[in-house]
Design a protein that fits this description.
Elements (H helix, E strand, L loop, with lengths): L11 H11 L11 E5 L6 H15 L3 E6 L8 H16 L3 H7 L26 H12 L3 E6 L8 H18 L2 H4 L6 E7 L2 H5 L14 E3 L5 H12 L10 H10 L4 H13 L11 H21 L3 H13 L8 H11 L5 H13 L3 E5 L2 E4 L4 H10 L13
Parallel strand pairs: 1-4, 1-5, 2-3, 3-4
Antiparallel strand pairs: 6-7
Helix pairs in contact: 1-2, 3-5, 3-6, 5-6, 9-10, 10-12, 11-12, 13-14, 13-15
Length: 398
């Protein structure tokens, strides 16, 4: 096999459209600068943001500020957002913040364009997030777009929700200031991505939510153009007798749920064998199924640790989706039928608490619950549909 080379799949059309939305330049939705994009985890959202959207924004004269809330799940979302703005301001100041810190000074004017203490941005007594972003607009001479990856993580704490309200307030304040917009549709745009549509929706549904009225768009999954490009790349590395039919790569991609990471793992095993050995595999499709099974094993382990009621509640959450009401008469009857005994509301609450402790279920707001990881539903449906499996039966221990 030829020496490996990196594979990068560019999505310029998608990046251009999202950038238009964020900058308020889309002719079909003028002024819409808060963009929400939802897609399952590991389907290419973060790669798109870093490799496609951020450069596209820069090419349009905007200053992007990127925050990944998933990479630092233990961190406070507000702190992470403020730190990203601080870094962007420091970059505009050509690294002066490090020199200031090295001299033991934190309050300095960074020239004539920043008069507040950069270290106290977003903290009580310091400059607000809106003031920091406004300074960034002025220094950059163009719009700023804050890109928050896995934004649903902000819902895990009150501080995270406060950070979302702070961004909304900054958006409104800055975009109403003609000295900052300077004739442009907007001076501050926001892009939020999420792997959990229900949780992301909690930011836009309800009049008490920070982005009430905004719409959530489905981030497009990678299509056949991706598998064809990847196939050309892979086949350029393989000897002629080991090259893969592009149609087979497309089928394998479907098997792994359109997740590039798992497709790449299956192709690597097809090309090299286990641990670089010479073993021949039956087909790429079987290797794709193996990768999917490896991913699903973690769900099987979690399922086996649930009691019968927790399993019944989890199945109902999956089956009902947004219609799920944990304590209504229909739900209680469904639990009772599944377990063959009367189930009370207090029992359901205990089951939900246990599911939340195991990070399988999240409470969106009072009386509303959803899956923490929506892809567990794919596994459970597949298990239920297979006559050889009984893991999806309440109370079973696979």
């Amino acid at each position: 096999m030829a020496a490996a080379s990196p594979f990068v799949f560019a999505r310029p059309e998608v990046a251009s459209r999202v950038a238009q939305w964020a900058l308020g330049e889309d002719p079909f939705s003028p002024g819409e600068v808060s963009v929400f994009l939802a897609a399952p985890r590991r389907t290419g959202k973060s790669t798109f943001l870093v490799h496609d959207l951020l450069p596209e924004l820069t090419s349009r004269g905007a200053t992007p500020v990127y925050v990944d809330l998933w990479s630092q799940k233990s961190g406070d979302p507000g702190d992470l957002i403020n730190e990203a703005v601080r870094k962007a301001l420091d970059k505009q100041g050509r690294g002066v913040l490090d020199r200031i810190r090295g001299a033991g000074v934190t309050k300095a004017g960074l020239g004539s364009w920043l008069s507040f203490d950069l270290e106290k941005l977003g903290v009580p007594g310091g400059a607000t997030l809106a003031e920091g972003l406004a300074a960034l607009v002025r220094k950059g001479g163009g719009p700023v777009v804050v890109v928050v990856d896995e934004a649903q993580q902000a819902l895990k704490s009150e501080a995270g929700r406060d950070a979302m309200f702070a961004l909304k307030s900054a958006r409104d304040t800055i975009n109403l200031d003609p000295t900052l917009t300077a004739g442009r549709p907007a001076a501050l745009g926001l892009v939020f991505t999420g792997s959990h549509r229900d949780k992301l929706a909690s930011l836009v549904t309800g009049r008490d939510q920070p982005f009430f009225g905004s719409r959530i768009r489905d981030f497009p999954l990678l299509g056949r153009d991706y598998t064809e490009a990847y196939g050309r790349h892979v086949n350029g590395l393989l000897p002629p007798d080991r090259r893969i039919d592009p149609a087979e790569i497309e089928k394998a991609f479907d098997i792994v749920g359109r997740r590039p990471q798992y497709l790449h793992a299956a192709v690597t095993r097809y090309a090299t064998g286990d641990l670089g050995g010479e073993r021949e595999f039956d087909s790429l499709l079987q290797l794709a199924r193996d990768e999917r099974e490896t991913h699903w094993d973690s769900y099987r382990r979690q399922w086996s640790n649930l009691n019968a009621l927790q399993q019944a509640v989890l199945k109902r959450i999956i089956g009902e989706g947004e219609r799920f009401r944990p304590f209504d008469g229909e739900s209680l009857a469904a639990y009772s039928d599944a377990l063959g005994e009367p189930i009370a509301a207090k029992d359901v609450q205990q089951a939900l608490d246990g599911l939340r402790e195991q990070e399988l279920v999240v409470r969106l707001e009072r009386g509303r619950y959803s899956l923490e990881d929506p892809s567990i539903a794919d596994w459970l449906r597949a298990e239920a549909a297979s006559p050889e499996k009984d893991a999806a039966k309440p109370g079973s221990r696979p």
